[in-house]
Amino acid sequence: MPESVISRLSAVGRVPEDIRHASVQQKRFDEENTGRSVGYVMLDCSGTTMDRYVDAPAIVFVEVFRNYGLEISMPEARAPMGLRKDLHIKAITEIGSVRERFRAKFGRMPDQSDVDAMFADFVPTQLALLRAGNYHELLPGVAQVVADLQRRGIKLGVTTGFTRAMLDVLLAGAAKQGFVPDTACAGDETEMPRPTAYMVIKNLERMGVYNLQNAMRRTVKVDDTVSGAGEGAPLCWRVGVSRWSNYVADSWDAVRKMSAAELEACERRSKEKLVRESGAHYVVDDLRGLPAVIADIDERLAAGENP
User: Fold this and answer.
1) Numbered ranges of CATH 3.40.50.1000 in the chain
2) Active-site residues: which are they?
3) Location of each CATH 1.10.150.240 domain in the chain
4) Among 188, 149, 143, which Cα is nearest to 165's?
5) What is the signed CA dihedral for 254, 256, 262, 267, rounded to 10 degrees?
6) Which residues of 203-232 are buried (b: 16+ CB within 10 A; e: fewer)?
7) Considering the entire predicted model, what is its pTM?
8) Residue 241: beta bridge partners?
9) Within 10 A of 36 (CB to CB), how many other CB atoms are there?
10) What DSSP designation does 218 have?
11) Under 8 Å between Cβ of 131 and 172
12) Which residues contact 124 (CB under 8 A, 6 or more apart)?
């Protein structure tokens, strides 16, 4: 009779590695996503694939606070950009200058009830703006880059701080321009959104990934904000894109009034911020730089390097 596997257990019940890896269940993990090349790319919406300079949410944050009786500046509205929108509102209320004006206006400091009330106003206001505007217009080169990636068999996901209803509006507009990701995850579909990895992981789950560790090693996250370009750390590769970022200007209209030298200086500051603060492995101008980044990551993976 063949030797019983039980006889090979250690005194504390440790299973020998050859037996463990020979099991059907473990083989399924071991044999899935073993490739040493990029297999998945997760893209942000505003400032990365569409909505240059992230106008849509910034405009609404200012309006929502004004409706609540408090004026905030555009830099204050933009400072926490990349976070889920309710958390973004909360982060604005935690800015020192905003808190002092709030106290002077209302005689107390802002609390969660204020955040909840403003978020309740934010949702319909943001949806109305997205439906009425062209904030889904793809940025230069995006349609070609994503089409090329999908032709190569790389699966595309989307992560965003918008709610699902808002994301659906943007994706419907993007689809008419040829941008149809394989999956998408909105900020309200995970308990812990950016900068954690859970929206990236939710997309991989929806793609049917079995070996999460292997898949994350083959995943690239791309974003224009510090929290978004750090999303997925330390499990996947991260890329910051700076040219159309939230950090460049207060609005698209403001950019149109800049000289070439002024715009170049703003774009440089945006790139500097992403390099210094995001923890991204790469920072490039925009999505047109992504193919070269992926080629470099493929070389690093083939050499045995992981994120």
Assistant:
1) 40-54+136-302
2) 44, 85
3) 55-132
4) 188
5) 80
6) bbeeeebebbebbbbbbbbbbbbbbbbbbb
7) 0.95
8) 284
9) 14
10) T
11) no
12) none
- Report, at the CATH architecture level, how domain 40-54+136-302 is classified: 3-Layer(aba) Sandwich (3.40)
Spell out the per-residue pLDDT of the chain, length 307, in tens: 567 999 999 999 999 999 999 999 999 999 999 999 999 999 999 999 999 999 999 999 999 999 999 999 999 999 999 999 999 999 999 999 999 999 999 999 999 999 999 999 999 999 999 999 999 999 999 999 999 999 999 999 999 999 999 999 999 999 999 999 999 999 999 999 999 999 999 999 999 999 999 999 999 999 999 999 999 999 999 999 999 999 999 999 999 999 999 999 999 999 999 999 999 999 999 999 999 999 999 999 999 999 9
Q: At the top level of CATH, which class does the domain 55-132 belong to?
A: mainly alpha
Contacts of 27-35 spanning 24+ positions with Cβ under 8 A: 28/210, 29/210, 29/211, 30/211, 32/209, 32/210, 32/211, 32/214, 32/215, 33/209, 33/210, 33/211, 33/214, 33/215, 33/217, 33/218, 34/214, 35/218
* Length of the chain as a residue count: 307
Q: Which residue in 214, 215, 83, 81 sits closest to 157, CA to CA?
A: 215
**Residue 111 CB coordination number (10 Å):** 10
